[in-house]
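User: Could you go from structure to sequence for me? I need the amino acid at each position, not a summary. C-alpha cells:
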C-alpha cells in the first residue's frame, strides 16, 4: 500500500501537472471505487467543467481541490497509483500514446478510471486489486472524514514531546503496531515502520511501555529522516506503486530490511527474519533488534 512518501510524491507530481486544468469527461469500468456520490452521472456532473485549484495530502489521502469549493479525495489503498498522460482505446484496452514506462510497465496497465482534461491530457488510476476509494466531498464532509487521523509526522510543530505524548497515550501495544496506527500518527505503514525500527535498532514486537527515553528519541529522529529520504527519492516501488509518469520511485536503493527475509543484515550480516504481526509480515534483524 502506498504510504506517506508515495502519496506525498504523487501530490507533488500532480501539483506540477494538473493545476488549472479543467475536467472534461470521466471513464470507468469499476464504478464500485466511487464511494460518493454513488451515482456515476452525479459524480460526473460534480466534476465536469471544474478547474483544479490545489492538490494536498493528508495522511495517505490525495486531496484535489476544485473550483466549485468541493474536494476530490483519492485513497490509493493496496495497489492503486495515479498516472498522467494520454491513452487511446483499442479493442477494449487503453493504450498509452506516450512511449516509455506508461506503455511498457505492466503495473501501469490496470486502468480502472480516467479523468479527461479539456486540453487533451488525462489522469488515470491504475489499480490491480480494484480497492481504491474516490469521493467528492464538501469541506465539512472532508473535515469529518479525516477528523480521527493523528498528526503528520513531518510537520514542524510535531516535536519529540508531541511524538512521545502520542505514543504513550496508547499506553499499551507493540511499537510497530503503534507506529502504523493512523489515529496515533498519520501516514506510516508496513514498509516504513520496518525501515524505521531497523535503523533505530528496536524490535518491532517491543512494547511501547518498555521503551526508554533514549529509544523513543531515536525512533523519532530516524522516522523523520527516513520519511524525508523516501520523499526525496520518489517513494518505494518494490510492489505496485509508480510515479505519475509511470516510473518507479528510487527508495529501493535505500531499503535495508523490508522484504529482505533470509538476506544478510547490512549491519551485522545476520539473516533477516520475517514474522507475522497483526496479519502483516514484519521484517527485522534478530541480532540488531533484540527483544
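Assistant: Here is the amino acid at each position, in order:
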Amino acid at each position: 500500500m502506498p504510504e506517506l512518501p508515495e502519496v506525498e510524491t504523487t501530490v507533488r507530481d500532480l501539483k506540477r501537472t494538473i493545476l488549472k486544468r479543467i475536467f472534461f469527461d470521466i471513464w470507468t469500468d469499476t464504478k464500485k471505487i466511487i464511494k460518493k456520490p454513488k451515482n456515476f452521472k452525479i459524480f460526473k456532473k460534480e466534476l465536469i467543467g471544474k478547474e483544479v485549484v490545489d492538490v494536498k495530502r493528508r495522511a495517505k489521502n490525495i486531496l484535489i481541490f476544485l473550483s466549485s469549493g468541493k474536494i476530490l479525495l483519492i485513497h490509493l489503498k493496496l495497489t492503486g497509483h495515479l498516472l498522467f498522460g494520454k491513452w487511446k482505446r483499442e479493442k477494449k484496452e487503453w493504450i498509452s500514446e506516450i512511449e516509455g514506462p506508461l506503455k511498457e510497465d505492466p503495473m501501469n496497465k490496470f486502468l480502472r478510471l480516467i479523468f479527461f482534461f479539456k486540453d487533451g491530457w488525462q489522469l488515470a488510476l491504475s489499480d490491480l486489486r480494484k480497492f481504491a476509494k474516490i469521493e467528492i466531498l464538501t469541506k465539512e464532509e472532508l473535515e469529518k472524514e479525516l477528523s480521527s487521523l493523528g498528526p503528520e509526522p513531518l510537520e514542524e510543530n510535531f516535536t519529540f514531546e508531541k511524538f512521545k505524548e502520542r505514543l504513550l497515550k496508547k499506553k499499551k501495544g507493540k511499537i510497530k503496531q503503534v507506529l502504523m496506527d493512523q489515529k496515533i500518527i498519520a501516514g506510516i505503514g508496513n514498509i516504513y515502520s520496518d525501515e524505521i525500527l531497523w535503523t533505530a535498532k528496536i524490535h518491532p514486537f517491543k512494547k511501547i511501555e518498555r521503551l526508554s527515553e533514549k529509544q523513543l528519541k531515536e525512533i523519532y529522529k530516524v522516522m523523520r529522516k527516513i520519511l524525508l529520504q523516501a520523499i526525496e527519492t520518489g517513494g518505494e516501488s518494490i510492489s505496485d506503486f509508480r510515479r505519475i509518469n509511470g516510473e518507479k520511485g528510487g527508495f529501493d536503493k535505500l531499503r535495508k530490511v523490508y522484504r529482505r527475509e533470509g538476506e544478510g543484515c547490512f549491519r551485522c550480516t545476520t539473516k533477516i527474519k520475517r514474522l507475522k504481526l497483526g496479519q502483516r509480515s514484519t521484517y527485522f534483524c534478530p541480532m540488531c533488534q533484540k527483544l
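One structural detail worth keeping in mind: Helices lie at 4-15, 40-47, 101-104, 139-146, 160-170, 175-180, 190-200, 213-232.
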